[in-house]
Design brief:
about 100 residues; mainly alpha; 3-methyladenine DNA Glycosylase II, Chain A, domain 3; 2 domains; 4 helices; elongated
């Protein structure tokens, strides 16, 4: 019985070590502009823009898959202008600003 407990402690410790190293090696830098753009979008998640909801639209804008906010039909023009101004003035983790049209 003592052997089984020791084996489980060693296996658990090794797995914890492997997971800790993996979390450092496979760390992904997250662009905070996506969350900010999601909060500026209407939040209807209608998919009218051609993306899977407002999160998909925000990710497409930040990753430059699209460069126009006008794809979002339910969003008002002042919100579109605000999103474009934010993305055109706020640099990402790589230090680059985007060229987005309202």
């Amino acid at each position: 019985m003592l052997n089984a407990v020791l084996v489980m402690l060693v296996v658990g410790g090794l797995m914890g070590l492997v997971l800790g190293v993996a979390s450092i090696v496979f760390h992904v830098e997250i662009d905070n502009r996506i969350d900010q753009v999601i909060s500026m979008l209407p939040g209807i998640n209608c998919g009218g823009c051609g993306y899977a909801g407002c999160k998909g639209m925000a990710e497409a804008l930040v990753s430059q898959d699209t460069n126009t906010v006008s794809l979002c039909k339910p969003s008002k023009m002042d919100a579109k202008i605000k999103i474009a101004e934010y993305l055109n003035s706020t640099p990402g983790p790589d230090g680059k600003v985007l060229n987005v049209k309202p």
